[in-house]
Amino acid sequence: MSTQPLPLAGVTVVTVEQAVAAPFATRQLADLGARVVKIERPDGGDFARGYDTAARGLASHFVWCNRGKESVAIDLKDPRGLALVRKMVAGADVFVQNLAQGAAARLGLDAAALCAAHPWLIAVDVSGYGAEGPYAHKRAYDMLVQCEAGLVSVTGTPEQPVKSGIPAADIAAGMYAFSGVLAALVRRGTTGRGGPVEVSLLDSLAEWMGHPLHHGMHGGVAPARTGLAHAVIAPYDAYPTTDGLVLLSVQNDREWRRLAERVLGRPELADDPAFATNTARVAGRAATDAAVAAALAPLTAAEALARLDAAGIACARLNSVAELADHPQLTARDRWREVESPVGPLRALLPPIVFPDAPEPRMDRIPSLGQDTDEVLAELGVPEAEVKELREAGVIA
C-alpha cells in the first residue's frame, strides 16, 4: 500500500516546447505527479504532432513524449496571447522552453528575465548549442548534434559511420533538463529561491561521449568503429547460431577462463598467452572471435544462451522492436499500461523510476491540440466572453 504521494504532486509546470528534448523532460515531471501545462501554436501545435501517423493516426514521437499533459493552444506572437502565458508562468513553479535561440528572449520568456521577475520560479532554457559562442544560433536537430558531438564517428562499422537509431542528443538534453529541475526544486526548498537552468544538446551529448572522448584525448587515438563489438574488450560481439545471433560480453580474464572451459570446450585457451588477457584478446580479435564463433555455430540461440548463462557469462538476444514490445521480462514485471489518447487507449511503458511506497506514476491521457484551453483560461479568471473573442480572433484554439 502506498504511504507517500508522488514526489512532484503539487508542482505546476508551464512549458513552451516542441519536438523531443523539452517534451521528454516535462513528461518525466508529469509522470512523477507534476501538473504540466503545454503551450502550443493554434495552427498545428507542437510540430512533432505531424512527424508521422504510426500510432493509430498519431505521431509516435508525440505519443512518447506528451502523455499526462494539458494542451493549451495560444498564439504567442499576439500580445493578448503572450499576456495570458505570462500570467500562467507567474503562478507556476517551473517554466521550460526550447524555442529557437533568441525567440524566448524576444518574447520575454527566457529564464533570466522570468527568474528576475519571479524569484520563486525555476526556469529552464533548453538549446542546441548554448546561449553564447559561434554555434549559438545554428539550428540543432538531433542528427546534426550527434555528428557535432562525435557520436557518429564512433558508431557503425569500420566502413560506415551511422547515427544512433534513437534521438540520443534530444534524450540526453531532456534528461539533464529533468534532473536540473529536480536539483533546483531541492535548492529552492532550502533557499526559498528558484533560478535559471540552462541545458544544451551539445553539452549533454558531449558528456555522454565520456569514454571515447577520454580515450582519444589521453590515449592519443579515439576508439575505432566496431559495429556490435567493443573497441577495447574482447570477446564482446554478436555471434551466429543456427537460428539467429547471440551477443556475449567477457569483462575480465576470470570470465574468459569460464567461457573457455565451460562454453568453448577449449580449456587450454584460458592460459594461452595469445588469449589469456584482455589486451591479448583485443590484439588478436580475429582469432578470439573465431574461437567463440566456432563453439556457438552448431547451437540454437536458446542452447547457446542456456550454456552461457550456466557459465555466468553475460549474454543477450538481438531483439527486434517487435520482440521488445513482447519482452518476457517486461511482461513478467507488469511494466505495460494503457494510456488514453484521442484515438483510444495506447500501450505505454511505465517510467523507469520506481517509488515502491508511492502511487504508480501518472500516465494520463495524450492531449489533443487545445483540449484544455478553456479550462486553463477559466482558472486564470478570463471571462467566457473574452475567451470567445480570443478564439474568433485566432489567438487561441
Strand order of the largest sheet: 3-2-1-4-5-6
Return Rg in Å: 25 Å
Total number of beta strands: 11
Supply the helix-strand structural class. alpha/beta
Overall mean pLDDT score?
95
Q: Helix segment count?
A: 17
String of helices and strands: EHEHEHEHHEHHEHHEEHHHHEHHEEHH
The major β-sheet equals: 6 strands, parallel
Helix content: 25-40%
The outline comes out as elongated
Q: Which residue ranges are poorly predicted, with pLDDT under 50 across at least 5 consecutive positions?
A: none
N/C terminus separation: 41 Å
Q: How much strand content do the residues show?
A: 5-15%
Keywords, please?
397 residues, alpha/beta, 6-stranded parallel beta sheet, 3-stranded antiparallel beta sheet, 11 strands, 39% helix, elongated
How would you sum up this structure in a few lines?
The chain has 397 residues and is of the alpha/beta class.
Description:
39% of the residues lie in helices and 14% in strands. The protein has 397 residues and is α/β, with parallel strands linked by helices. The strands form three sheets. Strands 3-2-1-4-5-6 form a six-stranded parallel sheet, sandwiched between helices. A three-stranded antiparallel sheet has the order 7-8-9, covered by helices on one side. Helix 1 packs across helix 7 (168-191). The protein is elongated, with a radius of gyration of 25 Å. The protein starts with 11 loop residues before the first strand and ends in a 5-residue tail after the last helix. The model has no long low-confidence stretch (mean pLDDT 95).
